[in-house]
């Protein structure tokens, strides 16, 4: 009987998914066929299964107790009540989803926050004027009545085989019960694999519309609530500026004494001493989990970064460089938007629906470049596809464009497939292009056969044996090698195929893997930044004391592509400028200067920058309060621009 109720719940959610596809069928990509729709229904079943188990779990537990105490009548009544409640909730939520989808082209998402922050009365009036509420309410009551009668007749009807099952021996009943429990656990996870189904599993086709129908409304609300909690848990302005004086913070950070009314005006920078050879094609490559420590001489026997290090020798290697965040999402949103990461999840913020003035894609577009974003994973992950489009990228590509989803791992396609697709997309043409790339292979589940593909280090090299504790198996370092090899081949091939390219290569965050559990501050924080493009960089010079972070990438590349006198807003600074401020702030108050790296600007301990060895901690050689003040100003500017907009208080 519980199984029958479970199937009914799943069936009702599946019927809604079919209705949703039919109602908005015109939104479907013309190239999507029956196979894509069946894939969506199959994947949607995994999410529906989790919801069904949540509702039926009370009677499942009661049924298990009923193995020892007769309580069939009570269980039947509870099961029927739950089924009727589920029916009413589902009809209401699913019925509300259709007009919501009509308005926002999606199931419940961040726009639902408007119920809490917008004029609720205005929202109700708008809904009343646009939706036939009375007619839908009448239909709602009729459907509940009919389905309740149907459920009463079939849900608790005794199966015909009950009499025979009652004669089974105890061991047979025990095995049957255990099998049932196992199936229910699988159903609750939406997967029989090593991990449960997750929201990143939504984008399984190339069709954005079909991908939006994979989740059921219950799951859409659950993920929305999780995102809402994360967003609201972000600290406010006073966490960085106890006095709340954002105007003074902006003036101090930019060393600009003027009293301007707009924060964007303080951000304006003008290009000077521009490159004589402008890049025709710009490639900004963000490598998954690419740590800076792998490029140090101390670890070269691992052979994890041979390609990028060789490229760096012929380009500019900014060694003292920090990531903007500890996670891929925050790093990408920082690089794309040009605003500091504050764990605000700006990809879910209403202000991100329009490009921020500091966003890199619109600035390059204004310079005449076609803008593209390539991601080896699924574009539904953290709304990255929608975010990139909103921030000005003209073309956005994800894993379904590059290969069959069934042959990719949980994070997307292999880097080789990603770079092959980019090579076919970016061709020598009259229009210059700006191409941002995010890779995925150097990431769990680490299922690429790297040893068969040529990774030579099957055992830890002898010179590293004294510090290797075996926690990270060699296959992990093999994936670092694989990602590096794919990167090197791509850069060399594109260098031959397109004129005047320039490449900026960095990591999204450190790989979270080291030879032991005690990496230095540098080893557990820093990522590389390599600029390469012989034709474009031939007249440029890398300052001796250069330090940087992800937010500095955009102004550096813009300065290479723009003419003298071009004005644009930015929070970061051009790393090729001799006058650049020699302090960079990363995530969570990590600070780097030309002389040392400090993991927490609130502390008094720092480490010198390592060239090879593993230095110990040293007392902070400069004023820690000054560094902490600059870090707070940096974060406060990002918080204000995202949460309050451009206007400054009087």
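Q: What amino acid sequence fits the structure above?
A:
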């Amino acid at each position: 009987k519980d199984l029958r109720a479970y199937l009914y719940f799943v069936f009702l959610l599946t019927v809604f998914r079919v209705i949703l596809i039919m109602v908005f069928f015109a939104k479907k990509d013309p190239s999507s066929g029956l196979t894509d729709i069946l894939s969506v229904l199959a994947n949607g079943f995994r999410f529906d299964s989790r919801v069904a188990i949540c509702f039926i779990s009370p009677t499942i537990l009661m049924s298990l107790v009923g193995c020892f105490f007769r309580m069939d009548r009570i269980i039947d009544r509870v099961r029927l009540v739950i089924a009727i409640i589920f029916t009413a909730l589902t009809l209401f939520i699913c019925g509300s989803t259709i007009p919501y989808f009509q308005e926002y082209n999606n199931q419940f998402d961040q726009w639902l926050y408007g119920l809490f922050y917008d004029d609720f009365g205005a929202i109700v009036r708008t809904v009343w004027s646009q939706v036939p509420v009375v007619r839908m309410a009448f239909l709602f009551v009729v459907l509940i009545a009919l389905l309740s009668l149907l459920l009463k007749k079939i849900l608790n009807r005794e199966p015909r085989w009950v009499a025979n099952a009652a004669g089974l021996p105890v061991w047979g009943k025990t095995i049957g019960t255990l099998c049932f429990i196992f199936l229910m656990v699988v159903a609750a996870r939406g997967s029989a694999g090593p991990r449960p189904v997750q929201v990143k599993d939504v984008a399984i086709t190339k069709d954005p519309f079909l991908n939006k129908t994979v989740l059921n409304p219950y799951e859409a609300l659950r993920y929305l609530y999780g995102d809402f909690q994360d967003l609201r848990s972000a600290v406010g302005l006073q966490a960085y500026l106890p006095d709340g004086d954002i105007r003074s913070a902006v003036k101090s950070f930019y060393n600009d004494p003027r009293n301007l009314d707009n924060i964007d005006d303080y951000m304006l920078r003008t290009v000077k001493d521009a490159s004589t050879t402008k890049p025709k094609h710009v490639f900004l490559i963000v490598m998954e989990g690419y740590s800076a420590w792998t490029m140090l001489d101390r670890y070269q026997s691992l052979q994890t970064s041979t390609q990028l290090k060789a490229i760096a020798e012929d380009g500019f290697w900014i060694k003292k460089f920090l990531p903007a965040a500890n996670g891929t999402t925050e790093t990408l949103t920082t690089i794309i938007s040009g605003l500091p990461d504050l764990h605000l999840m700006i990809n879910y913020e209403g202000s991100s629906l329009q490009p921020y003035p500091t966003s890199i894609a619109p600035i390059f577009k204004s310079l005449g470049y076609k803008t593209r974003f390539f991601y080896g994973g699924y574009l539904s992950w953290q709304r990255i596809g929608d975010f990139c489009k909103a921030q000005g990228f003209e073309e956005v590509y994800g894993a379904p464009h590059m290969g069959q989803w069934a042959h990719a791992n949980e994070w997307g396609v292999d880097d080789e497939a990603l770079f092959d697709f980019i090579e076919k997309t970016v061709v020598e043409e009259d229009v210059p292009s700006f191409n941002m790339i995010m890779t995925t292979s150097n990431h769990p589940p680490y299922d690429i056969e790297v040893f068969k593909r040529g990774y030579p280090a099957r055992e830890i090299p002898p010179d590293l044996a004294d510090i290797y504790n075996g926690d990270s198996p060699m296959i992990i370092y093999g994936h670092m090698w694989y990602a590096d090899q794919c990167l090197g081949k791509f850069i060399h091939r594109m260098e031959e195929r397109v004129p005047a390219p320039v490449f900026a290569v960095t990591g999204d965050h450190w790989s979270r893997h080291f030879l032991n559990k005690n990496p230095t501050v540098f080893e557990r924080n820093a990522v590389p930044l390599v600029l390469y493009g012989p034709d474009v960089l031939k007249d440029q010079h890398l300052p001796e004391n250069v330090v940087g972070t992800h937010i500095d990438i955009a102004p550096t590349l813009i300065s290479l592509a723009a003419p003298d006198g071009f004005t644009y807003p930015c929070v970061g600074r051009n790393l090729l400028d001799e006058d650049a401020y020699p302090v960079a702030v990363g995530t969570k108050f990590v600070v780097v200067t030309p002389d040392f790296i400090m993991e927490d600007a609130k502390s008094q301990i720092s480490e010198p920058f390592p060239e090879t060895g593993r230095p110990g901690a040293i007392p902070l050689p400069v004023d820690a309060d000054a560094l902490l003040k600059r870090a707070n100003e940096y974060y406060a500017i990002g918080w204000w621009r995202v949460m309050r907009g451009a206007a400054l208080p009087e």
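Q: And what stands out in the fold?
A: Residues 325 and 587 are 5 Å apart (CA to CA).
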